[in-house]
Amino acid sequence: MTYAFTFDSSACSGCKACQEACKDKNNLPVGVLWRRVIEVSGGGWHPAVGAGSPRPNIVDDVNGVGGPNPYAVWENTVFAYNLSIACNHCVHPKCAGVCPTDAYIHRSDGIVYIDSSKCMGCGYCSWACPYSAPRYNPELGQMSKCNFCFDNIDAGLPPSCVAACPMRVLNFVEVSTLSEVEGRMQLWGLPASEHPFPLPNNSRTEPHLAVKPHKGMSNSLEKAIANIEEIRPKKQKSEASLVGFTLLAQMSVGMAWAGLWMTDSLPLIPYLLIGVCLVVGGFFSFAHLGAKRNAWRASFHLKKSWLSREILTAGLFGVSWLAGMFVPEMRWATSLLGAAFIYSMAQVYRLHVMPTWDTWRTTAGFFVTAALLGYVAMSSLLGAKSGREAFVVLVLLAVELAMMLSAKPKAEGAAINWRMGLSAAALLGVGTMLFAWSPFGGWISPVLFLIVLIEEIIGRVKFYEALHQKAL
Questions:
Q1: Helix, strand or coil, per DSSP, at residue 12
Q2: What's the rounded mean pLDDT across residues 243-250?
Q3: Same domain, 272 and 419
Q4: Are both 188 and 280 inside the same structural domain?
Q5: What is the pLDDT of residues 248-266, one digit of tens each?
Q6: SS3 assignment, position 437
Q7: Confidence band (pLDDT; 50, 70, 90) for 6?
Q8: Which of 244-258, 328-342, 364-378, 426-440 has the lowest mean pLDDT?
Q9: pLDDT: is 71 or 201 the higher one?
């Protein structure tokens, strides 16, 4: 037995009784919606085609001024429809797969819900869900979502949203009893490219939702969500902590690489700063969690979650760094574990539902950032003055600038221009020093580090802004 929601879009009045009933039953705070009624509209007015030959304009006989002809024939293609959607309790729930604490329960009847005793409120499940079904509850500090009212189901009652629908367009059924001749699109059996707007066309989760389409869904006209401010998840937490974590963690790894490359015997203070960057970055990551009491569960889902693997590799990198204080030969192992850490971090963001993240540029960018920040920071600490250090920085800056240029059509705006300008200035400065054989150390390295750091912060802030551009 597997349950699915069914919805008749052709008869929905958009009253939002289902949305309100869901909020009422689950006592959801303001701004948290488990079920959303999405309002879609499109079309417009234009002169009729083939309706005779009405004069396009007329002339005022008194004033001799031309203007629109009020007697011309016009027609419209205006349309609007509604789509009520909550968690679709998918065949392959991505939210359950990425959760690092393994807090999602997938029942035998297809219902997917969150075990609140395990959730640490990281929000990663909402990133990965094509439908943004999991929502952060600021009162609990945890993620929450539609649970199909499984308490009602177990008692032989319908979900509250279904019971509240006055038009009876929202219902639920057992998948095995849903006939293909009922005129409903069974979305779990259709490729995402055939799902009606505004459902994402790149989902791979096979949502348990059957829709009887409104005729406006099938036309070729441009469609838009009319109530996007209402249905889009509210930005409950700042990503500033994640910006700090990713940059500091990557710089820590990059400093380990640079120290191994630049000297056979790394002084104590620079070596300690590698660990300081990792610890402070870890603190920022911890601060991002809503339910910090469950953070100890973060590595419980190594089988599927890249976030769990990132946490594991971060821990191994830290342990190896600590051992390297007493066994210098461990520096090679520390560098290799650092590479595994950066790769795992990049995979966390390689989400199929985020096209701007799911690209080789994310992985390459994280490695280049780590190497660039680490190398410039270590050059400042060690006072490196040779042309080799300048050449390495020059190459890294050139690679990063080339990546920005190749991605620029997808990232227009003042911020990306500022970032490119800073990167180009740093590249020009280092190139001039290398060409003139000027010393690379002294005050030049700290200034260069500051420029690179500001440029990387801008890039990382813009990186996270893409998260809030999801349609749902």
A1: coil
A2: 96
A3: yes
A4: no
A5: 999 999 999 999 888 888 8
A6: coil
A7: very high
A8: 426-440
A9: 201
pLDDT at 146: 97
Q: Is the peptide bond before 198 cis (omega within 30 degrees of 0)?
A: yes
Instruction: For residues 38 and 49, state if they share a domain.
Output: no
Q: Please indicate, yes or no, whether residues 115 and 178 belong to a single structural domain of this protein.
A: yes
What is the tens place of the pLDDT at every residue in 83-109? 999 999 999 999 999 999 999 999 999
113 and 192 housed in the same domain: yes
* pLDDT of 10 strictly over 80: yes
Q: Residue 170 is encoded by which pair of tokens?
A: 């929202």
Tokens matching residue 121: 């409120």
Least confident of 148-162, 173-187, 287-301, 339-353: 173-187
Print the domain residue range for 50.
45-77
Exposed / middle / buried, residue 220 (Cβ in 10 Å: 0-12, 13-18, 19+): exposed
Amino acid at 291: A
Q: Evaluate if residue 193 carries a pLDDT over 80.
A: yes
Radius of gyration of the chain (CA): 28
Q: In the listed set 180, 204, 231, which residue is the last one of a domain according to the structure? A: 231
CATH of the domain at 259: 1.20.1630.10
Domains: count for the chain: 3
Last residue of a domain, one of 231, 262, 295: 231
Ranges of beta strands (E only) in 66-196 are 66-68, 74-76, 79-85, 104-106, 112-114, 135-137, 142-144, 170-174, 185-186
Q: Which of 219, 227, 296 is nearest to 85 (CA)?
A: 227
Nearest to 196 by CA among 204, 184, 205: 184
85 burial type by CB count under 10 A (0-12 exposed, 13-18 middle, 19+ buried): buried
Nearest-10 Cα torsion for 340, 341, 343, 345: 160
| Across 152-161, 201-210, 374-383, least confident range | 374-383
Say whether both 334 and 465 belong to one domain: yes
Rounded CA-CA distance 47/446 in Å is: 65
Per-residue model confidence (pLDDT) at position 144: 96
> Are 68 and 90 in a shared domain?
no
CATH number for the domain harbouring residue 108: 3.30.70.20
- Three-point CA angle 49, 52, 53, nearest 5°: 95
Report the C-alpha gap between 453 and 243 in whole angstroms. 12
Closest CA to 274 of 362, 344, 335: 335
pTM assigned to the model: 0.88
Q: Which residues pair with 80 in a beta bridge?
A: 41
For residue 86, the tally of other CB atoms under 10 A from its CB is: 23
Same domain, residue pair 250 and 227: no
